[in-house]
Amino acid sequence: MKNFKSTGFVLGNLWCGDKGFYPAEKLEAKTKRGLLKEARQGIKEGWLDAGMGFESLTGAILVIETIDSIKKNDKVYKNSESEIVNLGLSQKEFKMGLETIYLNN
């Protein structure tokens, strides 16, 4: 059985006229398509930021983890893979966001 989880950062327009990155809400879905659809909706509706309160959101950098688990002989075995996804950011914003993420972790 597969499960998909995401963490990451959103880029938003600050009320002072500048832009900034802030952690994104953590999402979980049974399909990658469903997770991406929910993330895009969160950007559009402005709720994907985890409490910053941007004027509006412009995009996100998400790390999507695919977790595959099987049960055999009463034991659960898990395997996971991760990928970085750019949702709506220019190449310059994406690069700046990756630098921000790695400098803060």
Short description:
This protein has 105 residues and is an alpha+beta fold. It contains two helices and five strands; from the N terminus they run βββαββα.
Write the layout of secondary structure elements.
Layout (H helix, E strand, L loop, with lengths): L1 E12 L5 E5 L3 E3 L2 H14 L10 E17 L2 E13 L3 H14 L1
Antiparallel strand pairs: 1-2, 1-3, 1-4, 4-5
List keywords for this structure.
alpha+beta; five-stranded antiparallel β-sheet; 2 helices; elongated
Describe this structure in words.
Strand 4 (56-72) and strand 5 form a beta hairpin. The chain is elongated, with a radius of gyration of 15 Å. It is of the alpha+beta class and 105 residues long. The protein has helices spanning 32-45, 91-104, and strands at 2-13, 19-23, 27-29, 56-72, 75-87. The chain starts with a strand and ends with a helix. Helix content is 27%, strand content 48%. Strands 1, 2, 3, 4 and 5 form a 5-stranded antiparallel sheet that branches. The protein has one domain. The mean pLDDT is 92. The chain is built from 2 helices and 5 strands; from the N terminus they run E-E-E-H-E-E-H.
